[in-house]
Amino acid sequence: MPEADTTGAPSRRLIIIAAVLAVALAAVVAVLGIRAGSNQDQPDNGPLALVSVPAPQAGSEDCANLIPALPAELVSNGAKLTRRELADPAPEATVAWGAPDAIVLRCGLEKPPELTPTAQLRVVSGVQWLPVEGAGSSTWYVVDRNVYLGLTVPDSAGTGPLQEISDTVSGKLPAVPLRF
Transmembrane residues, as ranges (predicted)? Predict the structure, then answer.
């Protein structure tokens, strides 16, 4: 008859079972973590719901000429952002790119209240922009065309979208004097 263990330690068989269970549990947690992480990395390509904002000139000829000329993709920090479908009812003269934090362009907006004679403007490819900081994103307004445009970009976006939109705006809409 084998000698009984007098040290009070668990049996070797119990230690092996506990170790196998611990490794199995760790593997299950790792797999679930990887699956959850990969789902977060996948962009939401479903229709993007946007609220309407006052855009009295959204139906203008200028917006009708600009919107179809906008690129199908924007490059932000080296990543290509494709155009998003907008959920119904979609605001007129509005385009979005990327997910989960979309870049949104709206054409035909009202004059931004921040546009004053002392406002700090930025010029990109001959287009004058008024940047307005927000929480987690900024909206850049085109202020030197017949229609006002707003480009809302998340803080994580690079300058590529602003450059690409500026190139399209400068090629499609003639510059006009600022209106305060």
Answer: 14-34
